[in-house]
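Page 47, continued from p. 46.
Same chain as before, 670 aa.
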Amino acid sequence: MKLNIDTRETLDRADPMTQIRKAFDDSGIIMPSDLVMDGRVHRFHANPGKDRTNQSGWYVFFDGDYPAGAFGDYSRDISIKVSTHGTVPLTAAELQEREENIRRARELAEAERKKIAEKAARECREQWEKALPCSEHPYLTKKHLAQAYGARILGNSLLIPMYVNGQMVNMQSIDASGEKRYRKGAITKAAMMQIGEGKPAFMAEGFATAASVHEATGAACLVAFSAGNLRNLAPLYPDVTIIADNDESGTGEREAQATGLPYILIPEKGMDANDYATKYGNKALLDVIVPREPALRLFSGQELLNVPAPKSWIIKGWLPKGPAFCMTFGPSGNGKTFVVVDRMLSIATGQATWCGAKVNQGNVLYLCGEGSIDVRARVAVWCQEHRIAHLEHFYMSEEAAHIDSADGMARILQSLEFYDFRPDLIVVDTLNRFMEGDENDTQNAGAFIAACAELQNRYGACLLLVHHTGLADDAQKRARGSSAFRGALDMQDMVTKLGDVFCIQQTKNKGGREMQPVFLQLEDHEIEGWMDEDGEQITCAILVQSEDPGTEEAVQIRDKNKSKMVELFCLFGSEHDGYLIIKRDHLKKAFLEEVMERNPDVKNPSQTADMNLKRTIDPLLDDGSLSPFEKEVNGRVISYKTTGFKDFGDGIEEPFFSYNMRRKKVCNNL
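Result:
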């Protein structure tokens, strides 16, 4: 280290020699009794912790009214500049002279240091050439090292070379008792040795420490020779991890932290890596440096009793957060994509809930394999009706790529990297479009599932497949293809259509109770600013929540009743203030003639017709499709009105009644 000692504050009236003595005292270096101020470099015993033969101290002073110079200690890398002052300010000439003396003193000291270091390095190399390869030494035995790792032996001393830029500049000598010495005057700053071949992965303070790290890990490790030298080497080896000594003083950790490099502290106080390996073995040291993972994770019984971390959700109860494999399936044309789009956009825009279930906002990747133009309209109208102006958490593909092929997977990964997009939910619509293999083949299905798992694990994402049911009647309640898909799924839900209501029913919830079904129906909206080629307004539907329409059988009966009413409105209805009106007497006549035509022998045709009319009208009154228009004083309904049957006109194929002569003509006018 280099210090400037300025004594003006406290010693303005002191004589120059007192100021110089104070500078020595402050530095911790013992001032020589016979200080000579002749402008030459002098060596002296500077470190009380070393024997008297150690002449690592140096000084150079220039005499004058206000002596100036420098001193230091090569062994501790200390260099101190000293300026003395009197009570009278120096003139400009005196100041210049003093600075020149200091500069000359530093140059002389540096030249002397280099001269000494070069001489010491030559002596090290000469001694190294005389030394023999080492096969055993008391220090190696004491440290339980397998070999000498390039160290040599000369007499009773183990010699360890120290290099800077590939040149030997110093040498550490270790005697049989373990005492360590360096060559006097030789360079220690940024000097190192490497144990092991290849690019170094680690760095440690001492030779034995680094050797133990190499033996435990098999990786190359640098020897820094001291805690302080770690800082000097860190800029030269920015990719290493430091294995820090856990000494009582805390020096090892402090110096490791000061490098700014990653470090691993040996877990036991008072130990370095060699101490730890000696006590516990190299495998234990390896576990500290490179924590091992079991080939197969096993949970102890006690771990199973511990309270687990709470499960996280993207949509609570429906789509888990993190790596998860899910599926939405249903018959073709049954609204799966409407449901999926509604879910995706709820997540991407951070809606509070989806069908009552809490939503956590996340990035959504929609791998769209079919109908991307239609999907654009659905996204536009959804955002319009939810007042969403920006959609930065949502990306959609314009074509399919086979997930189970190397090329297809590479295209998906490259695209995500290109757009710097990390998805929380990946929707694959549909499985068939993104699968190269045969979905009915178990082996092909397994390969596709593995490819999906790669995406899930790479991004920590939930992956949702959109899939179809089979064509056969008995396959309408399950997803088509190999049973391997269902076995691998965490969650699965089915979309069915009951009349004009979509039912989303969970069919698998691994580890939990299946959610209650939710019901949605389409609602048409004009898309602002969207026109077709003829300039006509484009409309698109979005899903809105609905109520349980009942059983499938009940829905079929209700639809049949609606169709009956459409036919009767066509025959007898009239328009009034935007409503379609029909008299009850006309309805009664129609049902009575139906009874007589189908069962001429019925005993009480009028009563039967009333019953049939009630069965038809009551459900329609309950769901709001039909409502009373005129009533008598006693409450008897004279006529009914509706605004909800126009859409049924095109759906009548076979009439329920015999009044067919005007039916088609009137229906076409509705």
